[in-house]
Amino acid sequence: MRRRTVTLLFALFISIVLLAGCGNSNTSGEEAAKPVKELVYATAKDINDMNPHLYAGSMSAQGMVYESLIENTEEGLKPLLAEAWDISEDGKVYTFQLRKDVTFHDGEPFNAEAVKANIDAVQRNASKHSWIKLSTKIVSCNVLDEYKVQLVLSEPYYPALLELSMTRPYVFISPKDFINGETKDGVNGFNGTGPYRLHKQQTDRYAIFEANETYWGGAPSIKKITAKVLPAGETTLLALQKGEVNFVFTDDRGTDSIDTAAINKLVESGHFRLVKSNAMNTKMIVTNSSKAGSPVHEMAVREAIWYAVDRETISKQIFDGSETAAESLFSSNVNYADVELKKRGYDLEKAQEILEEAGWSLGNGKAARAKAGKKLAMKLYYDANSSSQKTQAEFIQSSLKQIGAELELIGEEAASIAKRRAEGDYDLLFNQTWGLAYDPQSTIAAFTSESSYYYTTSGISQAAELYKKIDEVMVSANEDIRKSLYEDILKIVHDEAVFIPLTNGSITIVAPKDLQGISFKQTQYELPFNQMYFN
């Protein structure tokens, strides 16, 4: 099998960089100044546009610079830029009391006027944000006083606070950075309220983030973070070995940085330690149930593919155990997702039996099955920058060949694959759920969005019922009804086999032993860098 690789949403390799002045005594005879330590990480792609109201930029970079009103934590929702909030009895009016000690990086005050300016700017580009259902519910954002703001919705919407806590778009940039009062066509700067500010960016070379020394939550211990653009693989590994970078990760754009062997070698050297999060998301194959003429339009074909995928081997041999085999769309630690569903283990005989019963026959001397003169042939799209997706694709291709299915593999840029998904121009493609901070509501809401999973779900026989239940669950104020609706929704898409799960991904960190304060957020897209410090 090909050299094993691992997709590590955050594989961090950090060593100490000593800057000028280390070890020199000052003229007054005081102790030598302590070394200044920084993180330099390798990224295969530029951080791109840092406008937090659009979607081209790196979320991990934006997460250092911008903040939301509320933070989603393992213990639940907690105050961030809003120190308190109230919800009206009818569930349609949210009133936020803002912190009074916050300024943007450019010195502008963070207040109710700034909140209104940002939310209004997002809403004036609402069609861009249709994936987040809150954008379709906001009627107005009203300033009550200098530090109190009110959000009025058209109807109750239980995930409102969760969606306000996301990395984007409801985060805040200085109104002075707006262009003609808007952000939809670009911004003049990238001044947020977060613990780091973007100091300098050279496109396709590097970006430098400096600590916000006046950060309302306290100045970060690590004063400088540099994102250095390097090709994934051998180049990144050599840069690590030479000390040119000391930190690598696979961010929200999903590029493998180095392979498993290199990771293990670094950890076994004794200079690094391994830290892992709980399951964050589910990696999966998304099918196009609506594509008439494609074999995946048939539930029998989708189910046969499910049975033909050996998840345990993918987990152990491709991911070296760093990701666990997934049996359903969401892992059980996702809210509302601990549901009893039909088990579909790896079973080639069962896959072949399903195809035979559905009329897909294997003729004499034929490599691929056929039905009514049409060959059982499909295309699987994978991210050309992800070696682990390529390895999985080749493994799945081999498995499907054993059941008489022909699979063409096509590697493309992530943006091209996203366009295919939005236009329904695919049979099968790799994707992942949105993660703990977003699920189940965001992934499920995307079932009805043409830019996301509409073509995945719209071809099933229960599509109308599915969409009705999704509309109902998003506005239900009754917890028991909400649980029941989510159970029905998950059973429908599971039984129809439109999302074929592969593995549950977690954030894996490999860090030097003297780096402390390592923790995780409820999202695979960010890390709380400002909580890290060197001993």
Describe this structure in words.
- The structure is a single chain.
- The protein is an alpha+beta fold.
- It is built from 14 helices and 23 strands.
- A six-stranded mixed β-sheet has the order 14-20-13-19-17-18. Strands 8-9-10-1-11 form a five-stranded mixed β-sheet, covered by helices on one side. A four-stranded antiparallel β-sheet has the order 4-5-7-6, with helices on one face.
- Strand 2 and strand 3 form a beta hairpin.
- It is globular and about 75 Å long.
- The two termini are 42 Å apart.
Average pLDDT = 88
Question: Mind describing the biggest β-sheet?
Answer: 6 strands, mixed
**Strand arrangement, largest sheet?**
14-20-13-19-17-18
Distance between the termini: 42 Å
- Residue stretches low in confidence (pLDDT < 50, at least 5 long) are 1-36
How many helix segments? Answer: 14
- Work out the number of β strands: 23
SS-based class: alpha+beta
How would you sum up the global shape?
A: globular
Q: What portion of residues belong to β-strands?
A: 15-25%
| Portion in helices | 25-40%
Gyration radius from CA atoms, angstroms: 24 Å
Short description:
Helices cover 25% and strands 21% of the residues. By secondary structure, it is of the alpha+beta class. Helix 9 (387-402) links the parallel strand 17 (377-383) and strand 18 (406-412).
